[in-house]
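hey so u asked for the seq, here:
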Amino acid sequence: MPVPDNVEATVRALVDAAGLPVSDEEFQSLVDGYPTLRELADRLYIEEVRYEEPALIFTPLPPAKGE
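ran it, C-alpha cells below
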C-alpha cells in the first residue's frame, strides 16, 4: 500500500478513529513519521507466503506417548 497523497488527512483519520487526544506537536510528529511507518508495515506482507503454515504452532494438548 503506497503512502497516501494527503498524509495529514490519513493521520487525522487514524487518530480520530482511535479516539486519541493529541497535541499539535504530537500530531505533527505522527505526520512526519507516518510515511516511514507505512513503508515498514508494507514490508511485513509477503503475498507468496500467505498459504504457508507458521513456523510455530501452539498445541494445547500434551504430546502423544512416544513423541
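The CA atoms of residues 14 and 20 lie 9 Å apart. The mean pLDDT is 88.
lmk if thats what u needed
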